[in-house]
Amino acid sequence: MSKEFTYWTSVLKKIFFLVFVVIATFSCFKIAVFYMPFLIAFIISLLIEPIIRKLMKKFKITRRLSAIIVFIITFGIIIGLLAWGITTLVSESANLLSNFNNYYSKAYNQIQSLLNNFNIENLKISQEIIDIVKSTSFSLLEKISNYFQNFLTKIVTGITAIPSIAIYFAVTILALYFICTDKIYMLDELEYHLPEKWMKELTRTY
Predict the structure, then answer these.
(1) Maximum CA extent, the chain
(2) In terms of CB atoms within 10 Å, which end of the chain has fewer, N or C?
(3) Residues 6+ apart with CB under 8 A from 183
């Protein structure tokens, strides 16, 4: 009886652990979507931190002023790259979609010409196998073209997601600004509220 009880206890523990892992993983994905702008802002702040310190030393200015200057430059570069990338991606996708039927027809005719010009008589292949190869080739081409067309359509129609992207981008920019300008204040607040051991670990990790 004790062995059976121990066995079922072990099974229940494993099931509970599995359910906990699934719930924790799902929660982490949900939380990651919410905190992603702050993570991106933190990574960018680490990249531009040496530039901020260099400006402070070279021009003998305060950290806040140096951070604002670097922030404006970084903000302009990010905006320019995003505008260029999105515009190029959408325009190229729209051009590919408009000429997609022509590309599909050319690929279809090319495969058909290749199969017709192939010297089948020397290989002694039955007509049934030849028909199977042709139908498989055209079916594969159609599936690839449908997938590619759907992918391009999603890119073009993705313009509807611009408001959500703009919100995430605005949050990222604000988080980057406060991390750059008020970094010392934030660290002081963390040091005041968190235990000393935690701060040492955070400092080591940082």
Answers:
(1) 85
(2) N
(3) 45, 63, 67
Closest CA to 94 of 135, 155, 40, 39: 155
Do the Cβ atoms of 176 and 44 come closer than 8 Å? yes
pTM for the model stands at 0.56
Structure tokens at 64: 């806040």
Residue 165's contacts (CB-CB under 8 Å, 6 or more residues apart) are none
Question: Where do the domains of the chain lie?
Answer: 2-108+149-205
- Tell me the three state secondary structure of residue 88: helix
